[in-house]
Amino acid sequence: MMLAENAVIDVQTAKYVEGYKLRLVFSDKKECVVDFEPFLRNTSNPMIQKYLQLDNFKNFTVAYGDLFWNDYDLCFPIADLYEGRI
Fold first, then answer.
1. Ramachandran category for residue 40: left, alpha or beta (phi over 0 → left; psi -120 to 50 → alpha)
2. N or C: which end of the chain has fewer CB within 10 A?
3. Residue 45: phi, psi to the nearest 5?
4. Does domain 11-82 have CATH number 3.40.190.10?
5. In this structure, what are the phi and psi dihedrals at residue 24, rounded to the nearest 5 degrees?
6. How far, in Å, CA of 85 to CA of 33, rounded?
7. Which residues are CB-neighbours of 70 under 8 A, at least 6 positions away?
8. Contact 57/36 with Cβ under 8 angstroms?
9. What SS3 string covers 41-85?
């Protein structure tokens, strides 16, 4: 199911699963597990690479419908998260 155009969907909760995976629950009750490892492993940006340290990765926040790390140091479009990809 794709995110409908003009739909306002927010991330309601995020829970750590394992490795670099988070289980996300959206405002329409859809749930999915997103694996952030490929993105993190394929970046050369040191500001992003620091999230390969699991303690840093696990320190995420859900607020105002967004999932982010360290005051938006790392964040992703909700439409991509909704589709389970980044």
1. alpha
2. N
3. -80, 120
4. no
5. -105, 140
6. 9
7. 56, 59
8. yes
9. HCCCCHHHHHHHCHHHHCCEEEECCEEEECCCCEECCHHHHHCCC
Q: What pLDDT was estimated at residue 4? A: 54
Give per-residue pLDDT as tens, 17-72: 999 999 999 999 999 999 999 999 999 999 999 999 999 999 999 999 999 999 99
What is the mean predicted confidence (pLDDT) over 5-23? 92
pTM of the model: 0.89
């967004």: which residue's tokens? 66
Q: How many CA atoms lie within 13 A of 59 on its CB side?
A: 13
Read off the tokens for 67: 């999932």
What pLDDT, in 10s, does the model give residues 23-34?
A: 999 999 999 999
Question: Which CA distances in Å does 75 have to 1, 82?
Answer: 22, 13
